[in-house]
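step 3/5: co-fold with fe (iii) ion
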Amino acid sequence: MTTVIRGDIVFTQKPGYFTVLEDGCVVVGDDGRVTEVTRSLDDLTLHGHYVLGECIPPAGGWTTPPVPPHWEPGPQVVDRRGCLVIPSFVDLHVHAPQYPMSGLGLDMELLQWLRSTTFPTESRFADDEVAETWYRRFVRRMWRVGTLRFSAFATLHVGATQLLMRLCQEAGLRPVIGKVNMDRNAPEDLRERTSDSLDGTRLIAETSSTETPDVGYIVTPRFVPSTTPKLMEGLGEIVRHFELPVQSHLDENRSEVEWVRRLHPDIPTYAEVYDHFGLMPEGRTIMAHCIWLTDSERELLRERRVWAAHCPQSNLNLTSGLMPVRRNLDAGLKVCIASDVAAGHDPSMPRQIVAAIETSKAKTFEAGHEKDRPLTLSEAFYMATKRPGEFFGAIGRGRVGSFEPGYDFDALVIREEEDNPLDMSVEGRLARFIYDGDDRDILERWVAGRRIPEPFAR
Ligand code: GUN
Ligand code: FE
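step 4/5: write tokens
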């Protein structure tokens, strides 16, 4: 049945401005995709042929009663007048097993933090009970904050990775997830034999498409220092053979960049190491951080149409650096905003949007960047919705992140806790939600045209 969602619609078709339809409608077809967005119910070709959906009054009650002009069977109208209706958030870089350690060890920089806090936490996921408890909590939290598609690192454990994929499938979320590959420079219990790492990857890649059809597999070498050339070569073959996407870390911290240079003295740059081993397939690669890129790396990332996941909160927490976001955007990189939980301590994308804007302003105090234009709210919103959503379109998992025709209707209905006695504009209310709102303001979450209830409610 066709569904019409009525409310104050906001989305970003292009970076730089919001499309706003006050008391507008999104029309969603049987297949869960948007067919039409209109200014009012009167504009709808469906006019006069709808039944009323469930009614939840906005804070302060209805201004006009939600009674349709005619009662004839037809499309369902979900009347959310007084609420904001926005695309749900897309986070292209998050570590699910690090959720238990949010906020821990952040007095350290990357390499020390990995050794002291991250690896010991991830090794606990060998235990199925630990994995089940924490992955349920993680999935519920993603639902709660309205991040309904994401690209997650799991751990190297095959069983726990498959469990995370099943939990997401059960919850109605549609992420891509990767078993982490690591066969060097790790404690013994987090170091795989190269052949086991490749076999485990192949196994999940092959079985997940039938077992968890809505959850995709993404090849996930942790980062160059964790993966031997033999492992990277084998993963490159798997990527080619199954036409899989890839995610990893790139140019995050200066000690890490230096370490990669020492490990691979014959390859000029960090990015070229991945490319050399076939781990930067064009149009289906995510690289997190990209702070210390050289000009030639920037050019390579542009050519390979890589999504550069900018993780501003993480970069401050681990004292990694301030991404030159304007320079990267001007160079034609597909920069999106991501949480990097748990180096980023908060899974909420609104918090990451704000951190990205603040970081872009801080960057202008740095010599050589005085003229960099800081990110605007609408640019940053685009970088947390449509830009990362395009990744899912590129790998054949549905276009998301906007309400244009053909996009999956992935949406949040926001009913602000405080009502609006100042008659603020729709855009003003969205700004207020991004800067000062939280998950209590999210009334409903929709994925591909279906409302998703809270998973694993306690
Ligand atoms: N580089 C390699 N592993 C990690 C990780 O888990 N988090 C971050 N932020 N960077 C990494
Ligand atoms: Fe990360």
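step 5/5: annotate
The longest strand covers residues 3-14.
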